[in-house]
Amino acid sequence: MIKNSLLFASIMVLVACTETSEVAIETASDVTSEAAQSTTEVSAPQALESKQPNILFILVDDMGFGDIGYNGSEIATPNLDQMALDGMKLDRNYVYPVCSPTRAALLSGQNPLHMGITGPMDDHASLPSGLKLMPEYFKGLGYQTHMIGKWHLGLTETSAWPINKSFDSHYGFLGGWIDFYTHVFAGGLDWQRDGVSVREEGHATELMTNEAISIIEQRNEQPFLMWLSYNAPHSPLQHPPSYSELNNYPEITDRSVFAEMVTHVDSDIGRVMDSLKEQGILEDTIVIFSSDNGGALGLGASNGDLRGQKRSSLEGGMRVPGLISWAGTIESGSVLTQPIAVHDWLPTLLEASGGDAEVVIDAYGQSMWPAIASGAIIERDTIVMGATHNLGVFEWPLKLVAVEDAESGEQSYNLYNVVDDPTEQQDLAATNPEVVARLIAEIEAMPEPDVSRLEPEFNNSPRYYPSDVPTYDARHIESKEPWAEAAIRDTD
Question: What is the DSSP secondary-structure string of 320-379?
């Protein structure tokens, strides 16, 4: 809830990234010049008379509901636990059950299922042309916009890259995952700064954190929007550079390695928060934390008592850890028990920053800022979320789980009250046929996408579960041209 002592804080923001020990690979000049032109345009004086808060959105990958300390996990997450104590826990934080749809929904405020994004995006696909994204909205409010880390919304078409989607800068990778040490994705180097591949030593989590801190330390007088998109604790399961000694497992297993990956990224999030404090801008910055989907149980994750997992429309696939903090503004130790979905963040943050939540084009989300700020009860629209063959239709607190058998095409429907029955044990479908029919009609009314943007044969893709990586110390080796340079060459 908002304290009366502060409404919108004044801030200072970044100018540019510090030089690092990276070596740039030669590439076509059009990509870098386009990024430079974008930076030049946003540098013109356009800040509003009222100062807006900085916005830092931290997204982690494949972290389940049962993988964070404040939800009772055995995994040590002291920094995230402290952030929850200092801010507001999001008890009903809903995302799509797989990464690309969540990312598309976050950036656009729209339903990615309507775009044909029902699973991991194909490397050759991109977001719909002309789709207005979060950084473009915030540029209109005088913000500089920065993306760090995992994109997974288009790889081989340069027009699909973050620097060509209104982000002033991008440091990180474009595909669905990378080796944390070699920065290789499916045989090719996938590590860039503003469209130019770079080779540098270091664990991906730590390099991303260093970049975030550099941006914070070198900010200018414009507010910043930063999307810090970690790939941890997504596979490949690899030992972090050092062990924390905070977790207690008797032997090395998928769970113990996954736990150390979680604790490692938690530690780095703490480093970013410390930077905000040291720079004196913690009270000027809204910080949001979320996972992009539920945990993959076969890769070390846990969703606690929730049924289902990644790619499932049950709660274990869609209800994930989340929190929001704004020191001095959002009441410490508070909890939002109302549902908040990933499409809600764009209108919510626009309103929190003094903008207009109603400007989001074809918005599927609603601003939850009144609920966060003052505890207002928000009447929720019926929404359809999910992934390929798995949909969840929310008419709060009811949820229809619609599952299609991939081979037979046969549909099954189950109805749950997820407030009274969070573990989805009591199927209410048989006793509420009219509700089931109404929610099925919501699915049938969804527009047909004009194109599929999905990765083919995702389930059998060796890139996600490589058979040639038998241990937690193994590395993915570069065997072909870097992804960025291949994309530039093909574009030319």
Answer: --EEEE-TTTBPTTEEE-S-EEGGGHHHHHHHHTTS-GGGSTT--S---HHHHHH-PPPP
